[in-house]
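This section describes the prediction task in plain terms. A model, or a person checking by hand, is given the sequence of a single protein chain and must write out its three-dimensional structure as a string of C-alpha cells. No templates, partner chains or ligands are provided. The sample shown here is typical of the held-out split.
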Amino acid sequence: MNRRLIMVVAALGVAFASSGCGAVGAPPPGGRVDAEVLSFKSDEFGARGSTAILDSERAVRAYLGGFTVPSVHTAPSFVAKLTEPFITGKSYVALNQPGGCHYAERVELWRDRDNLEARLIGGKNYPECVRAVAPSVLFRVDNKDIDGIKTINGVPVDRDGPAAAVGLTLLGSGSLLPGFAPREITGAAERATLAGEFGAAGVADPPAVMALLDGASVLSSQKYPDPLRRFAFVLPGCAAVAPLMYVSADALRADLGANPNVQCSVPAKYLAVFDIRAADVPQGAEPVR
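The expected answer:
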C-alpha cells in the first residue's frame, strides 16, 4: 500500500500547522478547501497516527482494520463517524498526528499543490507542555478537491489501511487453483514451497512467482521496518485495480478492487501478496477466502 497508517513522532516537527506558532504566511496556491468537519478533538492522546484519504467503502473498511488490536493502537475519537453511510462523490480526510502544545478551537483544511494542510485556529498555544497533544480531525470533502493529493501535512497519504500490497500477478488455469487456500508466507521456505506448488500445477513460472513472493512493499522498504508478516491470496476477477487486505478480529481477507463495470464470462485468477506489521494482526486471525 502506498500505505500505510504512519505514526509521526513529535521529533519530526509539528505536523499540524498552527495559526499561533510561527508565521503561517500567505494562503497557499489552491487556497482553503471547502471541507465539512465531521469530528475535531484538539487534545487526542494515544490514538494511532494517521494521514489517510478514504475515497470508498472498501478504503474505510481497510482503514478500520488498523484498530482491531486495541492494546497496540487506540482508535481516534472520529472512528465512529466512519460507520455512517458512505456518500458517493465524497471522501474522508482523516488525520491524527502529534501537534505540539496547541489546544485549538477549530481547524481548517487548505491545499498547496499536491499537499493538504490542516491548520489549527484559535485556542491556546503554549510554548511547552509535558507531552505533545495529538489533534484528530475527520473532514468530508468533494473528490475533486483532493484529486492528485500525495501528502497531508507533508506526510505521504495512506489509502490502504494497515496492510501494504507487495504485488500482483496473473495466473494461468490449473488443478491447484480451485483448492488453493490463502496462507502465510513470512518465511523464505514457505515462499519457496508455494512457488514450487504453482510450478507443479502449471499455473505460473516458479522464478517469476518467487520474484513476487520475495518482493518489497512500502512497509518492508522502510529504513527500520517493524517485524512484518506476509500473506498470499489467489483472487478471482475480470480486472485488478487496487488490491487491499482487510483485517478483522478473527480473519484476514483480500480483494482486487476490480472495476464493477468490467464484466467477463470467466474471471481470471491473480496471486496477490501483502505485508502487514505483526503487531497489527489480531491473535488467532487467519487468512481466509
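For orientation: Residues 188-201 form the longest helix (14 residues).
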